[in-house]
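Deviations from the work plan: none for this task. Representative record:
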Amino acid sequence: MPIGRRDFLKMSGGAVAATVTPSALAAAPAKPRRIIDVHMHAYPATTVFADPIVNPITGAKSPIRNGAEHMEACIAEMKRWNVVKGIVSGGDGDRLKAATDWHDRDPARFVAGAGVRGSDDTPLPPLETLRKAFADGSIKVLGEVTSQYAGLPLGDPKYDPYLSLAEEFDIPVALHTGSMPGGTTFDPCCRTARARLGNPEYVEEALNKHPKLRLNLMHGGWPYLGQTIAILMLYPNVNIDTGALAWLLPRPAFHDILRQLVDAGFSKRIMFGSDHMFWPDGIGLAVQGVESAAFLTEQQKQDIFHDNAVRFYKLAEA
Ligand SMILES: [Zn+2]
């Protein structure tokens, strides 16, 4: 969910902050499990964070001043929580380079994804650029695809050659689904964005035109949960992630979503994702969001935190 800080604070409206108390911010366990975060965002090293970065949940101020410091803070937070692998896409500026810079900083830890949109403001990169990156292995994921922000369904013909390329190279696609931060449609970036386009049912045409796709419905399609389940049921090549839900939603609401998905039989299709955006401490909060789900078995936690991502993204040495 690549967005502006002010927009996000507007969205959270302070209401969420009361749901995570300082006592919930427990230290990382002594022997943490190996975790894969499939929903991370990079910003170019030279991007200046002009405003103080305040975590919308904890209210904590961060000293981070630019994209380079953000990357280092995220790596430190990953080490703290034993997040051994992260799938990262650029959310600003030169999006492809932002992601590959993270990979180059720590090649064993990061898998670079192509964060693409397809709006007038943020056009799709040349197809040949991606072909080269998929061929040489510098980019291994097509996503986060934010077609909803462009006001388009994934089935729009504009995305067809990109999805065909993903099929050709066996590249998984990660799509933003669900909702967007409050006011997005009034932002000059995204005047054509529409809530209804976050409904996962809009992916059906793309899935049928491109039957070899592996598709991650990022943010689990929330709040269109029934439609997410309908898509998971019909399309075995679709998984979801917990991006943003696991730490920005009030915890009871997140647990309710997780429980419905698990009760419906999809514990092997849910992948842990933080979508920490500007807030490295969002990674730990998201880990705690899943760890604190008392209704999950140890095997289900292992699947969600690690094994499902290894299988879906075909990760080696994770
Ligand atoms: Zn997103």
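The domain at 34-313 is CATH 3.20.20.140 (TIM Barrel).
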